[in-house]
Amino acid sequence: MQEKLLVLASGSPRRKELLAGLGLSFEVKVSEVDETFELGLDPTEIVQELAYKKAKAVANSLSHGLVLGADTIVVSEGVILGKPVDVEDAKRMLSKLSGRAHMVYTGIALVEAGGGMEIRDVSATKVVMKELSPELISGYVATGDPMDKAGSYGIQGAASAFIPEIQGDYFNVVGLPVSLVADHLARFGFELFTAKKGG
Ligand SMILES: Cc1cn([C@H]2C[C@H](O)[C@@H](COP(=O)(O)OP(=O)(O)OP(=O)(O)O)O2)c(=O)[nH]c1=O
């Protein structure tokens, strides 16, 4: 029986599904966070800072429990690509990613409500994308799939056809580096496959 409360501070259905895969019980609580970041910060710092903001905002509203936040961005040739603002933006991002490799960074933060321990970490995956014709980009964007995703693609959907190779954690690209999260959860007492979970 898991005694300690685990809270996922995310509205992302992918993150919910990936965390649920670990077999732990958790609640989802989302709070509005300003996702702007300081210019000049390294992408690995930006994703950790945004993940921390998301987790901290929810932790501040609770008296107890452990809160997990995450943030994913795509970086191509030094340019940070978040979620597209519209269809044209999505097409622009995909044209930029076409025919070259880029990096996907997901920052994670675990924050104990009530002023306990806090950790941040980051996972990086290199993604190789095929050359995409304008017709292919238009067709994919028309499906709507890119619109809520960093870099304007979802490796887990039809865009899998564009990606012949990755180096690193696949789940990191989808939005949650599950293996890294599991390692950190264990440090907070959330052990997998033991009788005592989060006690
Ligand atoms: C690159 C890539 C991103 N994504 C998603 C993961 C994230 O949900 C999203 C990046 O946006 P985020 O701002 O990291 O997360 P979010 O707004 O969806 O959810 P929340 O802030 O509430 O936690 O892009 C995919 O699903 N597949 C992919 O291949």
From TrEMBL:
GO cellular component: cytoplasm
Sequence similarity: Belongs to the Maf family. YhdE subfamily.
Active site location: D71 (proton acceptor)
Designated name of the protein: dTTP/UTP pyrophosphatase
KW Hydrolase (keyword) present: yes
Compartments, as annotated in UniProt: Cytoplasm
Reported cofactor(s): a divalent metal cation
Source organism (scientific name): Tumebacillus algifaecis
EC number: 3.6.1.9
SUPFAM superfamilies tied to this protein: ITPase-like
Catalyzed reaction equations: dTTP + H2O = dTMP + diphosphate + H(+); UTP + H2O = UMP + diphosphate + H(+)
